[in-house]
Amino acid sequence: MEKRAFPFRIEYIFMLIAAFFWALGHPLGKIVLRTVHPFQLGAVNLIAGFLSLLIYLTLAGRLRDVFKISRRDFFSSLFLGVFGFFSYQIFTFSALSRIPASMNAVLISTNVVFITIFSAIFLKEKIFFYRIIGIIIAFAGVIFVTFNAGFTLNSGVNLTGCLFSMSAVISFALYSVFGKHVLSRNDPLTVATLALFSGAVLLTIFTASSVGFQQLFEADAYIWIIMVLLGATMIGIAYPLYFTCLKRMPASHVSIYIYMTPVFAVILSLIILKESFSWLFWLGGAFVLSGIILSSIFNRN
Prior knowledge:
Elements: H1 10-32, H2 38-59, H3 71-96, H4 101-108, H5 111-122, H6 129-146, H7 159-178, H8 180-185, H9 188-210, H10 214-218, H11 221-248, H12 251-258, H13 260-272, H14 279-297
Helix pairs in contact: 1-4, 1-11, 1-13, 2-3, 2-9, 2-11, 3-7, 3-9, 4-7, 4-13, 5-7, 6-14
């Protein structure tokens, strides 16, 4: 009997593109942060991403879906923006301004592990044996990545940056867990659009009242191009591609491609930023990737 060829699906390309754009934000964001403040980058990123999503929803004829959502879920979606976009952008870009892009990408990827933990705490979901093992392995990897220059406080590692990165992880995990019921009742892209709107408004106000926008006004055109490009690709393109694939394919298949994000991010950071690390970083990265795969794929005893 002739073996069937591996079936090609366009969704595989879509997910690789989404993972690539999410990864690209780490090295390019690092470049932008040499000129502007993390809050300013976050505000521009969210505004550009929100406008990009509006354009997509309009062209796809789905903009009216935003106004069909129930009042309760409407305000719940806006509230989710506090965790998923407002605080997440503050923490992740504050981390990126202090630690290497590769390190931030690996630490951020542990959000899958924290989603598992918070689901058990807040939603009373069971954590099975392989997930527990995956969580332990991932946390061991976080330690190796964080202290890749040596297990001492004066090793040169910016612990504040690592703390910001893990705070971003916790923030996004809370967004995913608290929004689980809202996301299950509505189109996830509609919920994300509303959350993105509230996050963009809150971060713009927060930035104006804290650091202002002077650095943005003084930034060169290429910095603005990168910032707008990041918002348009990481949110405006990657989100619709991701949710489209999620509708057409099992979530377990789609999640495999998400694991490519930290891999792409490390490769891009090595190429663009010429970053280099000790063997502990690579060992930790392997532990983190193995841990998040175990904690998300194996859901049985």
